[in-house]
Amino acid sequence: MQNCPPEIHAYIFELACTDGGATGVALSAVSHYVRAMSAPYQWYTLSVAGTPQTVRLVERIRSFSTSPSISWEQQQQPEANSTKGKGKATFGGPAISHLFISNRTPSRARELRYTEVGTTRDMVERRRIEAVFNIEADAWARAVRELFAYAAPTLCTLAMMCYDIHVSPNGRLFFSDLKRYRFPRLEELSIRGGFDTRLRDYDGLVDGTSPRLRLRAAEGGEEGEGGAGASAMMDCAEEDKDETTLPALKRLHLASPISFDLFLHRLRPLAPGLTHVRLSELLAFDYDMTRALHSELSERGAVPEQLPSLRDRLWSADPLAVPVDWERFLPPPEKLRRLVVQPAQLPPAPEQLCGCCSGYYRVDDMTRLLREMARESSRAAAGESGEGEEGSVFVFLPPGPRHNAYSFEEGYRDWLDRATGERGCWKEHYEVDIDALPPPPPPVAEDGLRLWDISVKRSISRTWF
């Protein structure tokens, strides 16, 4: 140990700190020398689960502000600090290259707000339960914004697994949180929920009196009052609204509950280099967008305009690709390399529950459409490449074993894989059995009430057809 050059030790520590932060914590407790040599890499990969842990991390980051110095990685990013209001880096601490963050611990990683509210009919108790969730969401969102301010200049991958945040009146994130800071190195972004369902911008103070939310949705502008706390107020200047704050972003993974259509539209000017898109747990609300994706893929020759094998097998009319006259969801044909789509699990069969109310008909039609698109795309890729192992742009993943198909554990595992250069969530078509039998539907209670959670995601999607 004593005869080994410090450069070798530093390289070893860098390779070791790829497990989410546990090794970094252990190295800091070995000795003064090991602590000092491993300090730049202790937060190379960092996973934070739960609001208390997130708040403690931010308190630790605040302690760095007592030092006038900044980290070596941040010193190498002068362009990240030169833009007004973007990528402010004034803390001297370990650089974060790969970040996984969740407002819940693994044992509580699910939507709990409405479940707990539904356990009582007492209105006072319901308000108390909702107040607890609101306080937790607000504290987490405040901490996340400070964490973004610290980590933005050095982040390469970011995964967020959020639960109940999007339905909190004060604690949800706004789309302006992706525009306030510049992420010059961020190449991969994975988000489950957490954002305002209408993807509004937070304008800060209007005439010095009250905060205002601005909506820039596909169907037009709309404004409304927001209730975010003073410390969460965003100062997103109008002239910066279309600035490229994610210049290096290549891969985007979105999982419900989030508005896929709005997010894809709004992210385009921020991330012009996007090449890979994955959408997980598409719901009944997303069927129209799925048909739009069919038209966009057909336009670029990835799938045929018509799918005869679906004839007389759908609840609705046979899908037919139409001319694209809407704002496109996918990156330009010359940039798109992979689109991975996974629908949600089927609701209970119509014999058990109304297929219109549960969304069964739309989810079933959407799943069949996506499966046939993947089959035709694989055939086309096999014909072009001879083997069909790398040429398919479109990849279909069958529904998962439960309603919340993309779980906390899967998200964490995929994030670690990507941090170490593995494939992660980006499956290839030859790895997937698209005809795998779907999992059994959830049960229906004896009193006739459904146990199926259609989703709290609010749909404001356009209707193209």
What does this structure look like?
The chain is α/β, with parallel strands linked by helices. It is 31% helix and 13% strand. It has 13 helices and eleven strands. Strands 1-2-3-4-8-9-10-11 form an eight-stranded parallel β-sheet, sandwiched between helices. Helix 4 runs parallel beside helix 8 and helix 10 packs parallel to helix 12. The protein is globular. The C terminus is likely disordered.
The gist of it:
This protein has helices at 6-16, 22-27, 32-38, 51-64, 72-75, 78-82, 113-117, 123-151, 260-267, 287-299, 355-358, 360-385, 408-419, and strands at 45-49, 98-102, 157-161, 188-192, 201-206, 210-217, 220-225, 251-255, 276-282, 338-343, 394-396.
